[in-house]
Design brief:
The protein is of the alpha+beta class and about 325 residues long. About 35% of the residues lie in helices and about 25% in strands. It has ten helices and 14 strands. A seven-stranded mixed sheet has the order 3-4-5-9-8-7-6, with helices on both faces. The structure holds biotin (BTN). Biotin binds next to helix 5, strand 5, strand 8 and strand 9.
Protein backbone atom coordinates (compact mmCIF):
# COMPACT_ATOMS: atom_id res chain seq x y z
CA UNK A 1 0.00 0.00 0.00
CA UNK A 2 1.53 3.34 -1.02
CA UNK A 3 1.08 6.67 0.80
CA UNK A 4 0.16 8.18 -2.60
CA UNK A 5 -2.84 5.82 -2.82
CA UNK A 6 -3.98 6.87 0.63
CA UNK A 7 -3.57 10.59 -0.19
CA UNK A 8 -5.61 10.28 -3.39
CA UNK A 9 -8.33 8.19 -1.83
CA UNK A 10 -8.63 10.44 1.22
CA UNK A 11 -9.12 13.43 -1.09
CA UNK A 12 -11.81 11.60 -3.07
CA UNK A 13 -13.53 10.50 0.14
CA UNK A 14 -13.50 14.04 1.52
CA UNK A 15 -15.43 15.25 -1.52
CA UNK A 16 -18.02 12.46 -1.45
CA UNK A 17 -20.12 12.47 -4.65
CA UNK A 18 -18.51 15.71 -5.91
CA UNK A 19 -15.83 15.03 -8.56
CA UNK A 20 -12.33 16.25 -7.72
CA UNK A 21 -10.57 17.95 -10.67
CA UNK A 22 -7.50 16.15 -12.06
CA UNK A 23 -5.23 19.22 -11.64
CA UNK A 24 -6.12 19.38 -7.94
CA UNK A 25 -5.10 15.74 -7.48
CA UNK A 26 -1.92 16.37 -9.49
CA UNK A 27 -1.02 19.29 -7.21
CA UNK A 28 -1.77 17.20 -4.12
CA UNK A 29 0.78 14.64 -5.31
CA UNK A 30 3.48 17.32 -5.50
CA UNK A 31 2.87 18.60 -9.02
CA UNK A 32 2.89 15.36 -11.04
CA UNK A 33 1.33 15.35 -14.52
CA UNK A 34 -2.40 14.77 -15.03
CA UNK A 35 -1.52 11.68 -17.01
CA UNK A 36 0.37 10.35 -13.98
CA UNK A 37 -2.76 10.95 -11.88
CA UNK A 38 -4.87 9.12 -14.45
CA UNK A 39 -2.48 6.14 -14.42
CA UNK A 40 -2.60 6.04 -10.66
CA UNK A 41 -6.39 6.11 -10.58
CA UNK A 42 -6.50 3.38 -13.23
CA UNK A 43 -4.35 1.20 -11.00
CA UNK A 44 -6.70 1.81 -8.05
CA UNK A 45 -9.69 0.94 -10.24
CA UNK A 46 -8.02 -2.32 -11.29
CA UNK A 47 -7.57 -3.10 -7.60
CA UNK A 48 -11.32 -2.77 -7.11
CA UNK A 49 -11.68 0.86 -6.00
CA UNK A 50 -14.24 1.73 -8.70
CA UNK A 51 -13.13 5.30 -9.46
CA UNK A 52 -15.35 7.15 -11.91
CA UNK A 53 -14.08 9.76 -14.36
CA UNK A 54 -16.67 12.53 -14.95
CA UNK A 55 -15.85 14.35 -18.23
CA UNK A 56 -14.54 17.92 -17.67
CA UNK A 57 -15.17 17.67 -13.92
CA UNK A 58 -12.74 15.17 -12.48
CA UNK A 59 -12.85 11.94 -10.53
CA UNK A 60 -14.93 10.49 -7.73
CA UNK A 61 -15.28 7.21 -5.89
CA UNK A 62 -17.97 4.92 -7.27
CA UNK A 63 -20.51 2.94 -5.31
CA UNK A 64 -19.01 1.46 -2.14
CA UNK A 65 -20.92 -1.73 -2.87
CA UNK A 66 -18.56 -2.37 -5.75
CA UNK A 67 -15.51 -2.05 -3.54
CA UNK A 68 -13.79 -4.98 -1.93
CA UNK A 69 -11.47 -4.82 1.07
CA UNK A 70 -8.66 -2.52 -0.02
CA UNK A 71 -5.75 -1.56 2.26
CA UNK A 72 -5.29 2.04 1.04
CA UNK A 73 -9.01 2.79 1.03
CA UNK A 74 -9.35 1.39 4.51
CA UNK A 75 -6.43 3.59 5.68
CA UNK A 76 -8.03 6.59 3.99
CA UNK A 77 -11.10 6.02 6.16
CA UNK A 78 -9.11 5.84 9.41
CA UNK A 79 -8.88 8.99 11.53
CA UNK A 80 -5.37 10.47 11.24
CA UNK A 81 -4.70 10.06 14.97
CA UNK A 82 -5.57 6.33 14.86
CA UNK A 83 -2.91 4.59 12.75
CA UNK A 84 -2.39 1.07 14.09
CA UNK A 85 0.01 -1.47 12.68
CA UNK A 86 -2.48 -2.88 10.16
CA UNK A 87 -2.03 -5.78 7.75
CA UNK A 88 -4.61 -6.28 5.02
CA UNK A 89 -4.43 -9.61 3.20
CA UNK A 90 -6.25 -10.98 0.19
CA UNK A 91 -6.06 -14.53 1.43
CA UNK A 92 -4.56 -16.30 4.44
CA UNK A 93 -5.02 -19.65 6.16
CA UNK A 94 -6.37 -18.01 9.34
CA UNK A 95 -5.87 -14.47 10.62
CA UNK A 96 -5.41 -15.92 14.13
CA UNK A 97 -2.69 -18.27 12.86
CA UNK A 98 -1.08 -15.36 10.99
CA UNK A 99 -1.11 -13.44 14.27
CA UNK A 100 0.74 -16.24 16.02
CA UNK A 101 3.40 -16.30 13.30
CA UNK A 102 3.86 -12.54 13.47
CA UNK A 103 4.05 -12.59 17.26
CA UNK A 104 6.72 -15.27 17.03
CA UNK A 105 8.61 -13.03 14.58
CA UNK A 106 8.49 -10.21 17.15
CA UNK A 107 6.19 -7.79 15.31
CA UNK A 108 5.06 -4.79 17.34
CA UNK A 109 1.60 -4.62 18.91
CA UNK A 110 -1.18 -3.63 18.78
CA UNK A 111 -1.38 -5.34 15.46
CA UNK A 112 -4.52 -5.78 13.38
CA UNK A 113 -4.77 -8.39 10.63
CA UNK A 114 -7.66 -8.28 8.18
CA UNK A 115 -8.36 -10.70 5.35
CA UNK A 116 -10.85 -11.03 2.52
CA UNK A 117 -10.65 -14.80 2.63
CA UNK A 118 -9.37 -17.56 4.89
CA UNK A 119 -8.53 -21.03 3.65
CA UNK A 120 -8.49 -22.58 7.15
CA UNK A 121 -10.65 -20.27 9.23
CA UNK A 122 -10.91 -21.58 12.77
CA UNK A 123 -13.92 -21.51 15.07
CA UNK A 124 -14.26 -22.53 18.70
CA UNK A 125 -13.67 -26.12 19.74
CA UNK A 126 -11.65 -26.92 16.64
CA UNK A 127 -14.56 -26.27 14.31
CA UNK A 128 -13.94 -24.68 10.89
CA UNK A 129 -15.17 -21.14 10.22
CA UNK A 130 -16.63 -20.69 6.75
CA UNK A 131 -14.42 -17.95 5.27
CA UNK A 132 -15.14 -17.45 1.58
CA UNK A 133 -14.10 -14.26 -0.23
CA UNK A 134 -17.64 -12.96 -0.61
CA UNK A 135 -17.66 -9.58 1.09
CA UNK A 136 -17.37 -10.85 4.65
CA UNK A 137 -14.61 -9.80 7.01
CA UNK A 138 -12.07 -11.89 8.88
CA UNK A 139 -10.03 -10.01 11.46
CA UNK A 140 -7.61 -10.53 14.33
CA UNK A 141 -6.49 -8.00 16.93
CA UNK A 142 -3.21 -8.77 18.66
CA UNK A 143 -2.03 -7.43 22.03
CA UNK A 144 0.57 -8.12 24.69
CA UNK A 145 -1.23 -7.09 27.86
CA UNK A 146 1.15 -8.74 30.41
CA UNK A 147 -1.67 -9.19 32.86
CA UNK A 148 -3.07 -11.77 35.23
CA UNK A 149 -5.11 -14.35 33.22
CA UNK A 150 -8.01 -13.89 35.67
CA UNK A 151 -8.46 -10.35 34.33
CA UNK A 152 -9.46 -11.73 30.94
CA UNK A 153 -12.66 -13.40 32.18
CA UNK A 154 -15.04 -10.93 30.53
CA UNK A 155 -12.70 -9.66 27.80
CA UNK A 156 -14.41 -11.46 24.90
CA UNK A 157 -17.86 -10.44 26.16
CA UNK A 158 -16.76 -6.80 26.31
CA UNK A 159 -15.32 -6.94 22.79
CA UNK A 160 -18.57 -8.59 21.61
CA UNK A 161 -20.58 -5.74 23.12
CA UNK A 162 -18.34 -3.27 21.30
CA UNK A 163 -18.97 -5.14 18.04
CA UNK A 164 -22.74 -5.09 18.60
CA UNK A 165 -22.82 -1.37 19.38
CA UNK A 166 -20.76 -0.58 16.29
CA UNK A 167 -23.05 -2.65 14.06
CA UNK A 168 -26.10 -0.95 15.53
CA UNK A 169 -24.69 2.54 15.05
CA UNK A 170 -23.71 1.68 11.48
CA UNK A 171 -26.84 -0.07 10.31
CA UNK A 172 -29.62 0.87 12.76
CA UNK A 173 -30.45 -2.80 13.19
CA UNK A 174 -29.82 -4.26 16.62
CA UNK A 175 -27.77 -7.46 16.79
CA UNK A 176 -27.53 -9.55 19.93
CA UNK A 177 -24.77 -11.31 21.80
CA UNK A 178 -25.25 -14.96 22.60
CA UNK A 179 -22.97 -15.85 25.47
CA UNK A 180 -20.10 -16.44 25.19
CA UNK A 181 -19.01 -15.60 21.68
CA UNK A 182 -21.74 -15.40 19.04
CA UNK A 183 -23.15 -12.31 17.36
CA UNK A 184 -26.71 -12.93 16.14
CA UNK A 185 -29.20 -11.04 14.05
CA UNK A 186 -32.79 -12.16 13.58
CA UNK A 187 -31.95 -15.40 15.39
CA UNK A 188 -29.12 -16.33 13.05
CA UNK A 189 -25.37 -16.03 13.43
CA UNK A 190 -23.61 -13.13 11.73
CA UNK A 191 -20.39 -13.26 13.71
CA UNK A 192 -18.16 -15.33 15.95
CA UNK A 193 -15.23 -14.56 18.21
CA UNK A 194 -12.22 -16.72 19.01
CA UNK A 195 -9.91 -15.39 21.74
CA UNK A 196 -6.61 -17.20 22.23
CA UNK A 197 -4.05 -16.30 24.87
CA UNK A 198 -0.52 -17.43 25.67
CA UNK A 199 0.31 -17.43 29.33
CA UNK A 200 3.94 -17.26 30.53
CA UNK A 201 4.77 -17.44 34.23
CA UNK A 202 1.20 -16.55 35.27
CA UNK A 203 1.09 -13.55 32.95
CA UNK A 204 -0.89 -13.29 29.73
CA UNK A 205 1.84 -12.57 27.25
CA UNK A 206 0.04 -12.73 23.91
CA UNK A 207 -3.65 -12.02 23.46
CA UNK A 208 -5.14 -12.86 20.07
CA UNK A 209 -8.75 -11.82 19.50
CA UNK A 210 -10.26 -13.15 16.26
CA UNK A 211 -13.56 -11.94 14.84
CA UNK A 212 -15.40 -13.25 11.80
CA UNK A 213 -18.27 -11.07 10.58
CA UNK A 214 -20.71 -11.94 7.83
CA UNK A 215 -21.22 -8.52 6.30
CA UNK A 216 -22.02 -8.62 2.59
CA UNK A 217 -22.22 -12.36 1.91
CA UNK A 218 -25.45 -13.62 0.33
CA UNK A 219 -27.48 -16.50 1.74
CA UNK A 220 -26.59 -18.54 -1.34
CA UNK A 221 -22.88 -18.08 -0.53
CA UNK A 222 -23.19 -20.18 2.62
CA UNK A 223 -22.82 -23.94 2.37
CA UNK A 224 -26.24 -25.68 2.72
CA UNK A 225 -25.58 -26.83 6.31
CA UNK A 226 -25.12 -23.20 7.45
CA UNK A 227 -28.04 -21.60 5.59
CA UNK A 228 -30.57 -22.12 8.40
CA UNK A 229 -28.26 -20.94 11.17
CA UNK A 230 -26.14 -18.20 9.60
CA UNK A 231 -26.91 -15.00 7.76
CA UNK A 232 -25.19 -11.73 6.89
CA UNK A 233 -25.86 -8.10 7.73
CA UNK A 234 -26.62 -7.32 4.09
CA UNK A 235 -29.14 -10.18 3.91
CA UNK A 236 -31.03 -8.74 6.86
CA UNK A 237 -30.79 -5.02 6.03
CA UNK A 238 -31.23 -5.55 2.29
CA UNK A 239 -28.29 -3.27 1.51
CA UNK A 240 -24.58 -4.04 1.23
CA UNK A 241 -22.31 -2.30 3.70
CA UNK A 242 -19.42 -0.03 2.73
CA UNK A 243 -16.83 -2.67 3.62
CA UNK A 244 -13.75 -0.42 3.96
CA UNK A 245 -15.59 2.25 5.92
CA UNK A 246 -16.96 -0.40 8.27
CA UNK A 247 -13.58 -2.13 8.62
CA UNK A 248 -11.90 1.19 9.50
CA UNK A 249 -14.58 1.95 12.08
CA UNK A 250 -14.22 -1.57 13.48
CA UNK A 251 -10.47 -1.16 13.88
CA UNK A 252 -10.82 2.18 15.71
CA UNK A 253 -13.72 0.99 17.83
CA UNK A 254 -12.12 -2.28 18.95
CA UNK A 255 -8.73 -0.72 19.71
CA UNK A 256 -10.55 1.78 21.91
CA UNK A 257 -12.57 -1.04 23.52
CA UNK A 258 -9.30 -2.82 24.34
CA UNK A 259 -7.89 0.34 25.96
CA UNK A 260 -11.08 0.82 27.98
CA UNK A 261 -10.89 -2.79 29.10
CA UNK A 262 -7.39 -2.57 30.50
CA UNK A 263 -7.93 0.91 31.94
CA UNK A 264 -10.96 -0.54 33.79
CA UNK A 265 -13.24 2.21 32.42
CA UNK A 266 -15.31 -0.38 30.53
CA UNK A 267 -17.09 -1.20 33.78
CA UNK A 268 -19.13 1.99 33.65
CA UNK A 269 -20.94 0.95 30.46
CA UNK A 270 -20.71 -2.86 30.61
CA UNK A 271 -23.98 -3.51 32.45
CA UNK A 272 -25.97 -1.12 30.26
CA UNK A 273 -24.59 -2.62 27.05
CA UNK A 274 -25.07 -6.14 28.35
CA UNK A 275 -28.74 -5.41 29.11
CA UNK A 276 -29.11 -4.05 25.58
CA UNK A 277 -27.47 -6.87 23.64
CA UNK A 278 -27.80 -10.04 25.79
CA UNK A 279 -30.23 -12.24 23.86
CA UNK A 280 -30.39 -15.10 26.37
CA UNK A 281 -31.80 -13.46 29.48
CA UNK A 282 -35.16 -14.92 30.51
CA UNK A 283 -35.11 -17.50 27.73
CA UNK A 284 -34.97 -21.28 28.00
CA UNK A 285 -31.50 -22.62 27.28
CA UNK A 286 -29.55 -25.82 27.17
CA UNK A 287 -25.92 -25.57 28.26
CA UNK A 288 -23.38 -28.26 27.49
CA UNK A 289 -20.17 -28.17 29.45
CA UNK A 290 -17.94 -31.18 28.89
CA UNK A 291 -20.15 -34.20 29.52
CA UNK A 292 -22.79 -32.23 31.47
CA UNK A 293 -26.01 -30.99 29.94
CA UNK A 294 -28.06 -28.50 31.96
CA UNK A 295 -31.45 -27.11 31.01
CA UNK A 296 -32.98 -24.02 32.53
CA UNK A 297 -33.63 -20.32 32.08
CA UNK A 298 -30.78 -17.89 31.40
CA UNK A 299 -30.51 -15.26 34.13
CA UNK A 300 -27.74 -13.07 32.80
CA UNK A 301 -24.11 -13.12 33.93
CA UNK A 302 -22.27 -12.59 37.21
CA UNK A 303 -19.51 -10.03 37.87
CA UNK A 304 -16.92 -12.36 36.28
CA UNK A 305 -18.90 -12.88 33.08
CA UNK A 306 -20.05 -16.43 33.95
CA UNK A 307 -23.49 -17.40 32.64
CA UNK A 308 -26.19 -17.93 35.26
CA UNK A 309 -28.87 -20.54 34.56
CA UNK A 310 -31.89 -21.13 36.78
CA UNK A 311 -32.70 -24.84 36.62
CA UNK A 312 -36.01 -26.67 37.12
CA UNK A 313 -34.73 -27.80 40.54
CA UNK A 314 -34.76 -24.17 41.63
CA UNK A 315 -30.98 -23.80 41.71
CA UNK A 316 -28.84 -21.27 39.92
CA UNK A 317 -25.92 -22.84 38.08
CA UNK A 318 -22.90 -20.82 37.01
CA UNK A 319 -20.92 -21.53 33.82
CA UNK A 320 -17.49 -20.10 33.06
CA UNK A 321 -17.48 -21.84 29.68
CA UNK A 322 -19.86 -23.94 27.62
CA UNK A 323 -22.02 -24.28 24.55
CA UNK A 324 -25.44 -22.71 24.73
CA UNK A 325 -28.43 -23.61 22.61
CA UNK A 326 -31.65 -21.68 22.81
CA UNK A 327 -34.61 -23.85 23.84
CA UNK A 328 -34.95 -26.39 26.63
CA UNK A 329 -35.17 -29.38 24.37
CA UNK A 330 -32.26 -28.50 22.17
CA UNK A 331 -28.98 -30.41 21.94
C1 LIG B 1 -16.81 -19.32 16.51
O1 LIG B 1 -17.93 -18.82 16.50
O2 LIG B 1 -16.64 -20.54 16.60
C2 LIG B 1 -15.62 -18.40 16.45
C3 LIG B 1 -15.30 -18.03 15.03
C4 LIG B 1 -14.10 -17.10 14.90
C5 LIG B 1 -13.74 -16.86 13.45
C6 LIG B 1 -12.70 -15.80 13.29
S1 LIG B 1 -12.51 -15.32 11.61
C7 LIG B 1 -11.10 -14.41 12.02
C8 LIG B 1 -10.31 -15.24 13.02
N1 LIG B 1 -9.46 -16.19 12.32
C9 LIG B 1 -9.85 -17.45 12.53
O3 LIG B 1 -9.31 -18.45 12.02
N2 LIG B 1 -10.90 -17.48 13.33
C10 LIG B 1 -11.29 -16.15 13.76
Amino acid sequence: MSPTDVTLLRELLTHGPEPVPGPRLAKLLGGVSRVAVWHHLQKLTREGCAIEAIPSRGYRLGSPAAVRLHAALLHAHLPRQRRPHLICLDTVDSTNSEAERRLAAGEPVPLVILAREQTKGRGRRGRPWHSAANGNLYSTFVFRPETDPARLQDFTLWMGLAVCSLIESFTRVRPGLKWPNDVLLDGRKIGGMLTEARVDADQVRDLVYGLGLNLNGRAADFPPELRGVATSLAEVTGAPLDLNKFAAALVSHLLRAYEQFFAGTYRTSFAELWARYDILRGRPVTVIQGTRTVRGTAEGIDAEGSLLVHTARGETERFRAGEVTLGKDAA
